[in-house]
TrEMBL record:
Record-level Gene Ontology MF annotations: citrate synthase activity
Pathway(s) served: Carbohydrate metabolism; tricarboxylic acid cycle; isocitrate from oxaloacetate: step 1/2
Record keywords, A-Z: Acyltransferase, Transferase, Tricarboxylic acid cycle
Listed GO CC annotations: cytoplasm
PROSITE patterns hit by this protein: CITRATE_SYNTHASE
Gene that this polypeptide is encoded by: gltA
Entry protein name: Citrate synthase
Gene3D superfamilies noted in UniProt: 2.20.28.60, Citrate Synthase, domain 1, Cytochrome P450-Terp, domain 2
Superkingdom of the organism of origin: Bacteria
Stated family: Belongs to the citrate synthase family.
Annotated catalytic residues: 269, 327
GO biological process, one term: tricarboxylic acid cycle
Catalytic reaction(s) noted: oxaloacetate + acetyl-CoA + H2O = citrate + CoA + H(+)
Organism of provenance: Parathalassolituus penaei
NCBIfam families: cit_synth_I (TIGR01798), PRK05614.1 (NF004126)
Length: 388
């Protein structure tokens, strides 16, 4: 009694059992419900992977069709919710707006407050997966002062997202299949990553009995930081700051300097110390997108590739197992597609939603206790309030 383990950063503490995702960081293995991420990226698609994460098995053809139509059924948001946007400054960071509007969904879907009914939990999951792209696109449209686009249910999940962002495809303008596939892959590669900071936040919030929309809003807040989902945005800012290949050595030196807080964004991972399997697939997609757009000679990309080469050969990075992670390449792809940098983490949040909700659902379906970490108190011993 009174004894507990001190583990800052939860480096060696398992807070839960889970059947959803397996990671072997040393071997660079990532499995969702047993299936390798490389095979899912190649043969599956984002919504099928969402079904897999939620239900534990790949859907049959009929189940998949039903799932797709259920998601399409939920793509619109309540018209009242669109008024929330007007309360934000147009230059607000999109993640700030997302924290607000996703949490606000709790005010619209009161049946989702009944978290102990599995049917209602699944409806909440469907609502969140379906509405995240709609809200994400609304955040963007609001920031540039354009009207919101209604979702189009004749399009695939990714095509519809690009349509709501960029008003395509219209009569004569179709979303490029390569770009739509790249978008789908970005969502899929972010779909889940076991007990990362944002998922653990969702679980912790959920362990109090909070409703799913509030829990996912908490996850979005945790994702925002540059050490987590904010890294994709930080990568692009870093590449812009480097500006020219001739400056790379200076930035590498800064990253190695222990007196300088600068880190190479998009490098390193708490769990992967050899390579990030998602980054491998992402790099391949990155090459496809840049070829499709004729951007192979993009100066920023050249800086990125040189940085990658130096960092993967330099002793400092090799010794510490710091390799390009998923966010290194996703930022480059998103920029090429035309997504503004401030929106990158919103895209990550959209992709991660099935993972968050699958973990929340797994927890609520099992015997769980409120999450309540302990601490090592290092403050004052007892002292008396000064006499007046
Ligand atoms: N650049 C330079 N040095 C680094 C970096 C980096 N990006 N990352 C870690 N290090 C060094 C760090 O200074 C430390 O050195 P030393 O042992 O000499 O003190 C050593 O590597 C271990 O670092 P750590 O901070 O103990 O590692 P961690 O597991 O706590 O942090 C991380 C992991 C991802 C937060 C960190 O690598 C980082 O800040 N990377 C940059 C941000 C980034 O790309 N984040 C996205 C992660 S992938 C997507 C996601 O999951 O959200």
């Amino acid at each position: 009694k009174g004894l507990f383990t001190y583990d800052p950063g939860f480096v060696s503490t398992a807070a839960t059992e889970s059947k959803i995702t397996y990671i072997d960081g040393d071997a660079g293995v990532l499995l969702h419900r047993g299936y390798p991420i490389e095979q899912l990226a190649e043969n599956s698609d984002y919504l099928e992977t969402c079904f897999l994460l939620l239900h534990g098995e790949l859907p049959t053809a009929e189940e998949k069709e039903n799932f797709l139509s259920t998601i399409k059924n939920h793509t619109m948001v309540h018209e009242q919710l669109s008024h929330f946007f007007n309360g934000f400054r147009r230059d607000a960071h999109p993640m700030a707006v997302m924290c607000g509007v996703v949490g606000a969904l709790s005010a619209f879907y009161h049946d989702s407050l009944d978290i102990h009914d599995p049917k209602h939990r699944m409806i909440s999951a469907h609502r969140l997966i379906a509405k995240m792209p709609t809200l994400a696109a609304m955040v963007y449209k609001y920031s540039i002062g354009q009207p919101f686009m209604y979702p189009r249910n004749d399009l695939s999940y990714s095509e519809n997202f690009l349509h709501m962002m960029f008003n395509t495809p219209c009569e004569d303008k179709k979303v490029s299949p390569v770009l739509a596939k790249a978008m789908d892959r970005i969502f899929l590669l972010h779909a889940d990553h076991e007990q990362n900071a944002s998922t653990s936040t969702v679980r912790l919030a959920g362990s109090t009995g909070a409703n799913p929309f509030a829990c996912i809003a908490a996850g979005i807040a945790a994702l925002w930081g540059p050490a987590h989902g904010g890294a994709n945005e930080a990568v692009l800012r870093m590449l812009a700051e480097i500006g020219d290949e001739s400056n790379i050595d200076k930035f590498i030196a800064k990253a190695k300097d222990k007196d300088d807080p600068f880190r190479l964004m998009g490098f390193g991972h708490r769990v992967y110390k050899n390579f990030d399997p998602r980054a491998k697939v992402m790099k391949q997609t990155c090459d496809e997108v840049l070829a499709e757009l004729g951007m192979e000679d993009d100066p920023m990309l050249k800086i990125a590739m040189k940085l990658e080469k130096i960092a993967t050969e330099d002793e400092y990075f090799v010794k510490r197992g710091l390799y390009p992670n998923v966010d290194f390449y996703s930022g480059i792809i998103l920029k090429a597609i035309g997504i503004p940098t401030e929106m990158f983490t919103v895209i990550f949040a959209t992709g991660r939603t099935p993972g968050w909700i699958a973990h929340w659902n797994e927890m609520i379906s099992s015997d769980y206790r409120i999450g309540r970490p302990r601490q090592l108190y290092t403050g004052h011993t007892r002292r008396d309030y000064p006499a007046k």
